[in-house]
Amino acid sequence: MKKTDGFEFLELFGEIDDKYIEQSFLPWKSRKIFRITYLRNIAACLILIIIIAMTCLFPNQVKGTLKSFQTVIERIFGFRQNISDYTDIVGKSVTKNGITITLDEVVLSNEEMLVSYTIITKNQDDLMLLSEAWINDHRIVTSEEYAEYNEKNSSNLNKVICYRFDKNWIVDDKAQIKIKLEPELENGKKIGKFNFQFEASKEALMNNIISVPINRIITINENIKMSLTEFNFNPIESNIKGICDNLPSEMSGYTVSYRLKGKDNLGNYISYRLNNYTKPNVNFVIDKRKNGLNEDSSWIELQLYAVCLEPNEGDGETIVDDLDSLDDSNTDMNFNIEEMGIDHPFEPFALGEKIRIQIKGRVENK
Amino acid sequence: MFFTALQKIYLIRLNIKVDYRYLLDKKRVPMEDERIVELLWNRNEAGIEQVSCKYHSLCYKIAWNLLTNREDSEECVNDTWFATWKYIPPQKPSKLGAFVGRITRGFAIDKLRKKYAFKRAEGHIACILEEVKELNYIVVRSLDEHIEAQELIDIINSFLNELSDKDRDVFVSRYWKMDSINKIANRHNMTDNAVKQNLFRTKTKLKKILEREGRL
């Protein structure tokens, strides 16, 4: 190779385009670049400050957003199985070993989740339903369970299960709900597992819910007072909750059942039966055999009734659950029918005065 | 390529006398390049006076950057006016500053070549020569392989065009104007090391391009 004298490149470079030479003699104008870089830094700082401020002011929302983002990423990479939407899961049926379970409705009300199912089976009398549920991976416990009225010889069994949960578990307004049902025959034979899993917004699950605090006191006798504290109405049921310290379970040796009966402002007949009494909490649930409560009703007027059940009674209006729900150990506070002047204890008799519950509007309950 | 020994004789024969007193006259407004070129084109000796008036400082700076010697630099500048008179016409430069600057730079390199023909370069220029050592080999090899010098210049021009304004300015300042690293760093508000890094990156890119084009 030819030996270099060290100036070949510099000599060649001397012949570059005039414009580059001219530019190099002009004062350097870097302001534009500087400004863009400067503005970029300012924008990045502002975004960072906003994120920190938002995190401090709205921690739950930020946590929720991050969780949603995490869910999306998990789904994209297949770490998380695809969960159905609430609207897709309602009405979904699962059939196993001759039993079909349909998820009819799910409702969130305060700290309760109500789930209604329809179970189609030939031998519903022998069937027990074990259930487990989770909200956002937190296990929730069953607080109440009852079967709705079904026509005789019907293979359909409508059940409502009420679960209690902590409302703090729904942080980002999104609830991932998993329900596992395990029907079991009386002889212990398991039918199979029925799983329902879905995701829904709190808003969708709390749609069409009316919850009214009330303060109505019914004086049953001198010693016993029942205080009704809360009226609820949702697509699954309507209930009235209250407190009574010593609700008698017997009258002169007969088992007693309680009901709240009356009419709404539209003239519809309404009846609530005592579904559960876990001292001191009482829970009256609407009886759907009647017309039920109308969505347009603005108030209801109810009277507390009691009825003594004859031994082995189990038909007509009397529901077996009523008997089971009463506290059998509470024998100290029995009514004395004669003292109360009740001639026909097997006929429903009124206790206390009528009460009116204002459902809509600002009129105070009387 | 450039005439050096005979220039003064030519200048005397052409009776061109450059009056340097204008350098002290701050109020004097330099003539536009187009008019200067026009004067030179029409063989008007005032053109040389005007060009020296306008570009003496620039040409002296270029020469000084390479030679770092007052007498040699002045000689290069004077040679530049002679060459300008000689080249215009037939050439008609659109950017007179770059045209005369290039001539000065050429003379200064010729002087350096002679100066360091039999000894090692020293000082600021030694650093620059060390930096472009590898590029020298590539240029020599490319020219050996029958690539025209103009072709290489086109490749370098296209390479410069692809560079960012900053990278290009740093590269041209160093290897055309032969500015010191410190001066470039001050001009671009950079550290000396950042300038060195920048030059290294740009040089590496150019080296790759020249090698690739040389093989094709």
Describe this structure in words.
The complex is a heterodimer of chains A (366) and B (216). With 366 residues, chain A is α+β, with helices and mostly antiparallel strands. Chain A has 8 helices and 18 strands. Chain A has a 9-stranded mixed β-sheet with strand order 1-9-8-5-6-7-4-3-2. In chain A, strands 10, 11, 12, 13, 14, 15, 16, 17 and 18 form a 9-stranded antiparallel β-sheet that branches. In chain A, helix 3 (31-57) packs across helix 4 (59-76). The longest helix of chain A is centred in the N-terminal third of the chain and has 27 residues, at 31-57. Chain A is elongated, with a radius of gyration of 34 Å. The termini of chain A are far apart. The relative contact order of chain A is 0.10. The model of chain A is unreliable at 313-333 and 362-366 (pLDDT under 50). In chain B, helix 4 crosses helix 5 (96-115). Chain B is 71% helix and 0% strand. The two termini of chain B are 29 Å apart. Chains A and B meet through helix 1 and helix 2 of A and helix 5, helix 7, helix 8 and helix 9 of B.
Following the backbone from N to C, one meets helices and strands of chain B in this order, namely: HHHHHHHHHHH
Radius of gyration of chain B: 19 Å
Order of strands, widest sheet of chain A:
1-9-8-5-6-7-4-3-2
Number of strands of chain B: 0
**Quaternary status:** heterodimer
> What's the mean pLDDT score of chain A?
77
Query: First CA to last CA of chain A: what distance?
Result: 113 Å
Number of helices of chain A: 8
Low-confidence parts of chain B, pLDDT < 50 over ≥5 residues?
1-6
User: End-to-end distance of chain B, in Å?
Assistant: 29 Å
Structural class assignment of chain B: mainly alpha
Beta-strand residue fraction of chain B: under 5%
